[in-house]
Every structure is written in C-alpha cells, then in structure tokens.
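Is this the right way to post structure tokens for a design question? Let me know if I should format differently. Anyway, here goes:
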C-alpha cells in the first residue's frame, strides 16, 4: 500500500521540544497528518547513549502521546545490530516501495551526512528535509554535499510532493536552542529542566532516575 511517511531519527537521550517542534513544523508545512519518531537503538556514531535504548524508546512514546498523528517506530531499538539509517529506510521501503518518504535531519547532522553508511543510497531511498539549527552555518558544508545539493536541492517543501524520494529541501523552523546534552547536564547538577521537554517525560526520568546524580 502506498503511504506518505515523514520520519525524524535521533538518539533522543532524552527527547525534547527541539525535536518535537521541528517535526511538527515540517509535518504541517508538508500538509501531512502524521509523522514518526525513530529512536536509535545502538547509534553507530556515538560511544554510548546515557540512557538504555528501552528507556529512550519509552520516553519517545510518552512524548508522542502528546500529539495526534505522532507515532514511534521501534524498529531500530528492537533489532540487536547497529542502527544505520540506510537499513531502516530499506526496511520501510520493503513495505512501501513507491510511497512518499521524507526524513528530517538537523543541520548539525547534515554537515556530517557524507560520513553515514551508504549515504548516497539514503538519498535514493528518501527525501531529506534539512532543518536549520542555531549555531550550525551552511558554510561548513563539505564539497561532496555541496555537489549533492546542486543535483538534488528543490526550492521548498512543497516541491518535494512531485517526487516520492531523492530530493533535498531546506526548511527553517522556530529556533529552539535546546539539546539533550544540556538537559542531561542540568539534571545531573540537580537543576530544573522544566519547559525544555514534556512534563510527562520529565516525570518518567525522575521515576527511573535516568540522568540524576547517584
Ligand atoms: N533544538 C533542536 N532544533 C532542531 N533540531 C534539533 C534540535 N535538537 C536536535 N535536533 C535534531 O534532531 C535529530 C536528533 O537529535 P539528537 O537526538 O541527537 O538530539 P540532541 O539534542 O542533538 O542530542 P545531544 O545533545 O545528545 O547530541 C538530529 O537531526 C538533530 O540535529
Ligand atoms: O546511518 C548512519 O551511518 C548514521 C550516522 C550518524 C547518525 N545517524 C542517524 O542520525 C540521527 C541523528 O543522530 P544523532 O546523533 O543526532 O541523534 C539518528 O537517527 C542516527 O541513527 C545515522
């Protein structure tokens, strides 16, 4: 069955309003009813997330309950191997080879996109929606990515709808300078992280004592 799918992958350690608001704004700008968060199980590029995958999945599910149409794909957490984005996209394409598939990626992640496993295949499996993030200028883009932009960039999100995959669009979202690193530091120092992430996620963190001093 052909679907329209919009995904945002992340370590989500923990998920916060920077993630949620960015995905919400892209979803709305694309005129889509649904969007999916994809927590990474074993991120290939990090030594180790702070919270175990099952807790990051649980926090992501709690956050997703806040909005109708927001879903969570547990695929990367449920498989034992490393979470390469290309594998997840192949998995989604196995279900729906022709449907519209777009992946949101922050500018900080896009600047290193040419180091991702089979990154050129990723571009043939899905659209990329690159969102601006405070402090990460485009000027730092490596040459390989400049070339890819030259070949694949479209003017705006609306132009993606003419294709099911393979294009890159930039979209500016409300700049929320929130990071999971900042939240972990605040909590470890015994300080408040309220209003940076959903209260229900904070309650879960407190119950599970995930980032607090021991
Ligand atoms: N405040 C934000 N605004 C827009 N995009 C964001 C924001 N925070 C994270 N993202 C994007 O969301 C995706 C997942 O991010 P991730 O889970 O690594 O969060 P993070 O806050 O960057 O975490 P950490 O501080 O641990 O590196 C990435 O593509 C990242 O660029
Ligand atoms: O597949 C890869 O090689 C790859 C390399 C770096 C990052 N990613 C994915 O990019 C997303 C954002 O990563 P991060 O570190 O910002 O949470 C997350 O879904 C990662 O699995 C994927």
């Amino acid at each position: 069955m052909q679907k329209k799918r919009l995904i945002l992958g992340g370590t989500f350690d923990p998920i916060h309003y920077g993630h949620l608001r960015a995905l919400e704004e892209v979803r709305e700008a694309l005129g889509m009813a649904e969007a999916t968060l994809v927590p990474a199980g074993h991120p290939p590029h990090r030594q180790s997330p702070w919270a175990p995958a099952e807790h990051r999945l649980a926090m992501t599910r709690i956050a997703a309950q806040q909005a109708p149409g927001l879903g969570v794909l547990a695929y990367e957490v449920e498989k034992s191997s490393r979470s390469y984005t290309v594998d997840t996209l192949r998995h989604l394409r196995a279900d729906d080879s022709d449907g519209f598939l777009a992946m949101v990626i922050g500018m900080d992640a896009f600047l290193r996109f040419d180091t991702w496993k089979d990154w050129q295949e990723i571009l043939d499996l899905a659209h990329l929606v690159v969102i601006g993030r405070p402090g990460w200028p485009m000027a730092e883009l490596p040459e390989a990515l400049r070339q890819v932009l030259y070949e694949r960039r479209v003017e705006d999100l609306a132009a993606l709808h003419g294709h099911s995959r393979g294009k890159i669009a930039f979209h500016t979202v409300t700049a929320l300078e929130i990071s999971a690193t900042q939240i972990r530091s605040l909590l470890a120092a015994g300080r408040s992280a309220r209003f940076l992430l959903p209260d229900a996620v904070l309650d879960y963190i407190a119950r599970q004592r995930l980032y607090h001093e021991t």
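Format looks fine. Someone answered above. Worth noting: The two ends are 49 Å apart (CA to CA). The pocket of nicotinate mononucleotide (ligand 2) is lined by residues 9-11, 38, 40, 43-46, 83-86, 109, 116-117 (CB under 6 Å).
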